[in-house]
UniProtKB/TrEMBL annotation, chain B:
Belongs to the ABC-2 integral membrane protein family. It is found in: Cell membrane; Membrane. This is Transport permease protein. The keyword Transit peptide does not apply. Its main location: membrane. GO terms for molecular function: ABC-type transporter activity. The chain crosses the membrane at residues 68-89, 110-134, 146-170, 182-200, 233-251.
Length: 336, 261
């Protein structure tokens, strides 16, 4: 029903966390992170193994308590109203959460029953999801016999029963083959189109790049960067030109001529910082020609999220980060 | 719907799930039924003549009459093992985490297990009683005696199932869960199931007289074979109530505390 006027607009924030902290004994897994995920957007928490991604999902989905911090999900306080949170969310964890001894269809009907959908409506929802996730042929076989990709699809289908408004996906494509991964991406895009808020964790940059409206990089229990993928790419200084030579002698002479460059002796290659523009390329080649150095191969690299990721979370190569970015201290990196 | 009817509906959903599991994976259920049947065949059919002379009292010479009530209790104790294993299996599966993130009655997962296990255990107990009758078990009990005996057995099943749920939650893995209930399964031997405690050496005899299975076996035997003893019945009811309350409270504590993976 329509309310009177616009006075009570629903909160525009789906997930909001302030100062979220969690430690397991001495190990600090989340060192006070802030999250703000607007409704209807895809948010990706990106980080290497052991960065604390799963811990964050487990806290936000009411599975484990945080040590500190304020969290509101769908307007409900995580601590005071966990059932309110649970009514709004649905979770696909990193580990398969299907019942292996039930068939695919029975798994979906189990979820429908737990959402109190009613018999007819539950069966209708189950059959519709089986069709949508290409599981009709396997609907009557036990989930234990499913392939990894089928299990994942069933897992997501179970997550969608009850039309949740906020979905947590913890590394949804880990362990899938490239085709399965692309199928999963299509599923996630479809959900986003329907206005579902998605909180996605991944260790694949490409995945975050492809799917997320906003990316936060988690490392060592801290958010070391946050923004759109374009914003993050801008954080690392420029790209580079990679030159390959015929022999070590040519590489030596080029390195002497160009000065500021990174050598890779095994590949007979030289990486020269460059913005990739035509003018700078022309001047680079002119300098090499003046010194009569023969270049075997030339390629231009613009920065991608991999550069960002390495720059932000790697031990080496953090020089590319700007002053606004806190680089993580490696000794704080803990595993969950 | 009210909170209670939600909890009831969720428990019924979980019960359906557990019964399906039992049908899909029957080896556990069949195994739990075979153990007491084999023991009965062994003690009544093979050792029965010699043991029958020794039991004394009203049952002398009628060893199947003496041993059957004890074996019926073993069937119930044996059912515990499957409960512990299936609870422990469940806890290692990712689906429990899914349940925990849903707005469902939390206890329904456990009540579903308890109801499912009770149904299975009572069915297998009925089969064991049938085998006992086929081996020559005859009772002098009337309808009321039978009803009283069945009531006590159902109560014991309820109590032991909650204890088994706690043991299943306590176990680190399903293998561990299949070990701890062995103690419960073994207890009737050190009671009055096979031979009277009076025939046992000092310390064992003391234990046999005061452990929970002995008064329950005596009550069932009294109702069905010899004559009922009110004192045994009262002690039996107290044990069942205590085990049920303790098992339920400890299960609930463990389930809420259990650190998920």
């Amino acid at each position: 029903m329509q309310g009177a006027g616009m006075s009570r607009q629903p909160a525009q924030t789906a997930i909001q966390a302030i100062g979220l902290r969690k430690a397991f004994g001495e190990k600090v897994v989340l060192g006070g992170i802030d999250l703000d995920v607007p409704r209807g957007t895809v948010f990706s928490l990106l980080g290497p193994n052991g960065a604390g991604k799963t811990t964050a999902v487990r806290i936000l989905s009411t599975l484990i308590p945080a040590d500190g911090g304020d969290v509101r999900i769908a307007g409900c306080d995580l601590v005071k109203d966990p059932d309110g949170v649970r009514r709004a969310i649905s979770v696909t964890g990193q580990y398969s959460a299907v019942d292996g001894l039930l068939t695919g269809r029975e798994n979906l009907i189990l979820m429908a029953d737990l959402h109190h959908l009613g018999k007819a409506e539950g069966r209708r929802a189950a059959d519709e999801l089986l069709a949508r996730f290409d599981l009709v042929d396997a609907a009557g076989t036990m989930a234990a016999t499913y392939s990894g990709g089928m299990r994942r699809r069933l897992d997501i289908a179970m997550t969608l029963i009850g039309a949740p408004r906020i979905i947590f996906l913890d590394e949804p494509t880990t362990g899938l083959d490239p085709r399965g991964r692309r199928t999963m991406w299509e599923i996630i895009r479809g959900l986003a189109r329907n206005g579902v808020t998605i909180f996605l964790t991944t260790q694949y940059l490409e995945e975050a790049d492809q799917l997320a409206d906003k990316i936060a990089v988690l490392d060592g229990g801290r958010l070391v960067a946050e923004g759109t993928s374009d914003e993050l790419k801008r954080l690392v200084s420029g790209g580079h030109v990679r030159l390959r030579f015929q022999d070590l002698a040519a590489l030596d002479r080029a390195a002497r001529t160009l000065g500021a460059a990174t050598r890779d002796d095994d590949a007979l290659a030289l990486q020269v910082p460059s913005d990739g523009g035509v003018r700078s390329l022309r001047s680079l080649l002119a300098r090499l020609e003046d010194a009569s150095i023969e270049v075997g191969e030339l390629s231009v690299h613009t920065p991608d999220l991999d550069d960002v990721f390495l720059a932000l979370t790697g031990t080496a190569g953090t020089t590319g980060t700007t002053g606004t970015i806190k680089t993580a201290e490696r000794d704080e990196v803990t595993s969950v | 719907m009210s909170t209670f009817s939600h909890a009831a509906a969720d428990s019924a959903t979980m019960l359906r799930r557990n019964l399906r599991h039992a049908l899909r994976y029957p080896s556990l259920s069949v195994g739990m039924m075979m153990m007491p049947i084999l023991i009965m065949l062994l003690f009544a059919g093979v050792f029965g003549n010699a043991l029958g002379e020794g039991v004394g009292g009203p049952a002398e010479g009628d060893y199947i009459g003496y041993v059957a009530p004890g074996i019926i209790l073993m069937a119930i104790a044996s059912g515990c093992m499957t409960t512990s294993v299936s609870v422990s299996l469940d806890m290692t599966e990712g689906i429990v985490d899914r349940f925990r993130t849903m707005a469902i009655a939390r206890v329904s997962l456990l009540t579903g297990h308890v109801a499912g296990s009770m149904i299975q255990t009572l069915i297998s107990t009925a089969v064991v009683i049938g085998v006992a009758v086929a081996l020559g078990f005859r009772t002098h009990g009337g309808v009321l005696d039978w009803l009283a005996a069945i009531g006590l057995l159902v109560l014991l099943t309820f109590a032991l199932t909650w204890v088994a749920v706690a043991l299943g939650l306590l176990a680190k893995n399903p293998e561990g869960a299949s070990n701890s209930p062995l103690i419960i399964q073994f207890l009737p031997f050190l009671g009055s199931a096979i031979v009277p405690p009076e025939s046992m050496p000092g310390g064992v005899r003391w234990f046999a007289e005061y452990q929970p299975f002995t008064p329950i076996i005596e009550t069932v035997r009294g109702l069905l074979v010899t004559s009922p003893d009110g004192r045994d019945a009262a002690i039996s009811l107290a044990w069942c109530a205590g085990l049920a309350i303790g098992g339920y409270a400890y299960s609930k504590f463990l389930f809420n505390r259990k650190a998920p993976r």
